Amino acid sequence: MRLGGLQKCSLDDFPGKVAAVIYCQGCNLRCPYCNDQEYVVPQCFGPPLPEAEVIEAINRRKDRLEAVVVSGGEPTAQTDLPRFLRELRSLGLAVKLDTNGTHPEILHSILRDELVDFIAMDLKAPLQGYAQVVGRPVNAEDIRRSVWLLRNSGVDHEFRTTAVPGMHTVRELKMIVEMINGADCYVIQEFVSRSPLQTGLNGRPAFPRRTIEDLRPYMERRVKRFEVRTHDDAVQMPVGKRRRAPQPVAVG
Ligand code: SF4
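ok -> structure tokens follow
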């Protein structure tokens, strides 16, 4: 696996658990609002972290950890992800995967072999407008298939969208939730204009919180649980996927 970073302890990335977070290098998409250039744009990559050292660093801390999260970049863009997840699982920690859902074949093998305890999948846009929002061509059938796999997996999961004014409208946010009507959990995350890939988004304000809260009744009629995650949550609340405040540190 090409690994770019390790955050040794996070209260924000696995619901209800103290977790280490591993950041994979490389992503097949280029979402303009992405804050993770160092794991997405090859020219921004640091030296890769040796996989054995990452696993050893987590193993040394496993008495203080409950879980490990594999994030990115896009982990499923690497074909040896299932093997890597199996090794992490052997440490006896709960395992969570963050994914953009564009590699359903990898997702299928991960779910079939029961390699994770939780999956968070991004839904970037209504299927008709996906490519414009993610900056790369995407096969809508792959997204549909990943949604289907997750919803029928029996594994805890959530779908989530980073809502970006100018890239999403309220109508489009409603169209996204229609794609997963009846799902367990849908999360709208607040856009953070911290070093986005597209510099034109720098400083762009997030949707007014009132606008997103006004969507709550609509969303709650369609999914079993609807959450709004704000940048404040990331600093204050130890639940769910947040924008991380500290930068990941090297192995050691
Ligand atoms: S937001 Fe996720 S899917 Fe989009 S470019 Fe960043 S890492 Fe890749």
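The first strand starts at residue 3 and ends at 14.
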